[in-house]
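User: Okay, second chain of the day. Same drill as before: sequence in, structure tokens out.
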Amino acid sequence: MMLGLSLPEFTLLHVVISLVGIAAGLIFFGALSSGRWLSRANGLFLTFTILTSVTGFLFPPKPIGPPFIFGVVSLVLLAIALFSLFVQQARGPGRIIFLVTALIAQWLNMVVLVVQSFQKIPALNALAPTGAEPPVLAGQALMLLIILFFAWRTIPARIGHAILR
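Assistant: Same drill. Structure tokens below.
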């Protein structure tokens, strides 16, 4: 039992938390790419992305592998993003640091979504039973393209603002 929940219940909670974080991140970065800063969406994205990593560590222990490493890297990136956002108030280079670290954290969650989808959803698992087949790689590449699009739309616009402030 974790947090008073059975393993299946805890897994469902973790998945819901992850999906909320991913959705909020997509909404936030989508709006930001068109020049709108959605504070609530950003707050949801940061909170639920942190919760995703933290709840991931509460699963029964396994050898250190990609899930553990992704969780640690994500939390480090989010700590830097939070510092840039709240301590530096996303001013000057802090804006760019926030965007880069937050975008990478979003990408990590999206990659995990693809991998877990191919592992857990029977129809997808049938397409890629080992997780190393082209459909999984294509899904991960699509996630990278989405993040690169957001980076392309948000970071150059912020560089000019960072230099001016």
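The chain has a mean pLDDT of 90.

User: Thanks, on to the next one.
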